[in-house]
Amino acid sequence: MNTRLHQFRTKAMNTKIEVKFAVEQESKARGMARFAEDWFQRTEHRFTRFRKESELSELNRLIGERCMISDAMLEVLLLAEHYRCETDGIFDPCLREAIEASGYDRSFEQLAAREATASKAKLAAKAREAVTKIEIDSRMEIDSRMKSVLLHAPLDLGGIVKGWSVQRLATYMKQKLAVTQGLINAGGDLAVWGAPESDPWLSAIEHPWQEGEDYGVLALWDGAAATSSKLGRRWSGAAGKEQHHLLDPRTMQPSSSDVDQCTVTGPDAVACEIWAKLICIVGVQEGLERFMNKTKHYEALVFGTDRRVHYCGSRASFESTAKWRDVSIDQAHWFA
């Protein structure tokens, strides 16, 4: 039998999801599509802060108490704690109070609907009431053997779960389901494997300043990529000032850095997601210095608020991991 590339699309975690994979039998392809869709739905149901019945919401109701947790929650919390330490707290999963105080207190489609019906004056007044200096105790006392955690502040895991769900499914499909070629893309968090040398997977890089257009195309054979942006999820805050979802934990306010958008590529989707967010939060200079000091075999394409584009990465990983097509690298600022 000839192996054929199958594709399906779904929506979960408030984002569009696309999965492509190569298998022989049509029946196996249908079963795999159902499995993948169920995986993303279950992941959303477990980790969302917008459903009262989710495991995350249950943990947030029991702040200060030691709670038993699922294997999946344990895995994500250990990853979150690792990257909190790796980024010196710039990635912090314990910012739920701050993000809700800024106005992001419901799923984004509901937030957009509220803004469409509410007056600017009412939204600004509500935001002014919420703007206070929030002190966060970010400790997570995790007991891996007991599979339990004691929290001191409520969690928002939206900054890591999407990348984790993509990477976890890709690993399972490769290792357990013996899928030799595949692509998983959840709103820009991407994992690919098995592309032949002559025909890499192609993924468009959204143009940050020209809506509906692409800046270039990323070609990947094996690995991952993630894009983070301050331009997408925005809403009205205090005094009508626009807010976005990338909070700087040093100020507890949406980042005012000199980065609009960042794409990171490398071996792991979670790391790509974390570093893309960090660079957006702390800015070009500090972000790329941290990125160079802490990562190997990763690359970053950074779009500054001044409309300048920066590339950071070693040529070794650039040649083996990814190639940027139709991107003016020769005109960019190299940090290699």
Question: Keywords, please?
Answer:
336 residues; alpha+beta; T-fold; 10 helices; globular; disordered C terminus
Query: Radius of gyration over alpha carbons?
Result: 20 Å
Helix content: 25-40%
Write the CATH fold name of the domain at 96-135 and 195-336: T-fold
Order of helices and strands: EEHHEHHHHEEHEEEEEEEEEEHHEEHEE
The computed structural class is: alpha+beta
**Could you report the average pLDDT, rounded to the nearest whole number?**
84
DSSP strand count: 19
Tell me the name of the CATH class of the domain at 96-135 and 195-336.
Alpha Beta
**Assembly classification:** single chain
* Strand arrangement across the biggest beta sheet: 1-2-6-7-10-15-16-17-19
Task: Give an overview of the whole structure.
- This protein has 336 residues and is of the alpha+beta class.
- It has a domain at 96-135 and 195-336: T-fold, CATH 3.10.520.
- Helix content is 36%, strand content 28%.
- The protein contains 10 helices and 19 strands.
- The chain has a 9-stranded mixed β-sheet with strand order 1-2-6-7-10-15-16-17-19. It has a 3-stranded antiparallel β-sheet with strand order 3-5-4, covered by helices on one side. The protein has a 3-stranded antiparallel β-sheet with strand order 8-9-18.
- Helix 1 (26-47) packs antiparallel against helix 7, helix 7 (158-175) runs antiparallel to helix 8 (269-282) and helix 8 (269-282) runs antiparallel to helix 9.
- The relative contact order is 0.12.
- Belongs to the ApbE family.
- Pfam families: ApbE (PF02424).
- Mg(2+) binds at residue 159.
- Its cofactor is Mg(2+); Mn(2+).
- InterPro entries: ApbE, ApbE-like_sf.
